[in-house]
Specification:
Length: about 270
């Protein structure tokens, strides 16, 4: 595993423009997370401009949290632009187990070769079961109802079938390309108590991917994010203050801090 701090350093040096088609809940926190980390966010989803904007961005994140049919079309169009230009795009399959509409849209999006898929355990189990045609777990809306370990086989299968890096987030994150796999033990239990921190994480992964190999870049992004959570919990012990302290930690963490504090191990 290449030094995690190197990836943070590269991301900040590039300050990539990250195009996000995300949900209404996530937009503000996601843009603030990306700015604090050192990237440049833009939330753009309207059909008349989404392809043109994707042409400007260095990376794209797509999130189905508050989906509608026009947004689904916009997601496909933006992803097609990225793939044609060999630029990375990241999928967050929010609540994919919950409804047939989410499953249909995700099936179309998976065909467009995301570089990385990051979701919670229930989402990765449900997504992997789409191709297999079986039901799978449904989760609890946008929240996970399964432990990370229960999604590891699904993550490997999904990675192998899609050619994507698949990351399952939770107390200990699991990241695989279908062959190699890593665990990241950074993080804090207050993180899932703030809405859309997982959504915002996908923007950070997209930023880390620019010009970098997907597997180690994703591992580094997750370690950075979790370490910021640990640092935030030293300053604030409840969700409201934690959110502010988390943004501060994303901003103040250095590449040296990350290299020293990353809890990364081969699975
Ligand atoms: N219990 C926990 N302990 C430590 N870290 C956690 C815990 N749960 C989640 N995390 C961390 O929180 C971040 C977000 O992951 P999470 O699994 O909560 O995403 P999510 O379920 O998609 O969230 P959302 O849909 O609300 O955006 C990740 O960095 C993950 O490592
Ligand atoms: C709460 C919620 N509902 C739809 S998207 C979202 C943000 C967390 O995924
Ligand atoms: Mg989520």
């Amino acid at each position: 595993m290449t030094d995690t701090g190197h990836f943070l350093n590269q991301m900040r040096a590039t300050a990539p423009l990250v195009h996000n088609i995300t949900n209404y809940v996530a937009m503000n926190i996601m843009a603030n997370v990306l700015l604090a980390a050192g990237a440049s966010p833009a939330m753009v989803h309207a059909l008349p401009e989404v392809e043109e904007f994707a042409g400007l961005a260095q990376a794209l994140s797509v999130n189905i949290g508050t989906l509608d049919p026009d947004w689904a079309t916009a997601m496909e169009h933006a992803a097609q632009v990225m793939v044609a230009a060999q630029k990375p795009w990241v999928l967050d399959p929010v609540g994919v187990g919950a409804t047939r509409f989410r499953q249909q849209v995700c099936t179309r999006l998976l065909a467009l070769r995301p570089a990385v898929i990051r979701g919670n355990a229930s989402e990765i189990i449900a997504l992997a079961s789409l191709g297999a045609g079986s039901g799978g777990a449904t989760g609890k809306g946008a929240d996970s109802a399964d432990p990370v370990e229960a999604a590891e086989a699904a993550a490997r299968q999904l990675a192998a079938s899609c050619g994507a890096v698949v990351a399952v987030s939770g107390p200990v994150d699991y990241i695989t390309d279908g062959v190699d796999a890593w665990r990241v033990a950074n993080g804090h239990p207050l993180m899932p108590r703030i809405t859309a921190l997982g959504c915002a994480l996908n923007g950070v992964i997209a930023a880390f991917l620019v010009g970098q190999p997907a597997l180690p870049a994703t591992v580094a992004a997750l370690a950075y994010y979790g370490l910021a959570g640990e640092r935030a919990a030293q300053a604030a012990q409840a969700p409201g203050g934690f959110q502010a302290a988390f943004l501060d930690a994303l901003y103040t963490l250095t590449p040296q801090d990350l290299s020293a504090g990353a809890k990364v191990a081969r699975a």
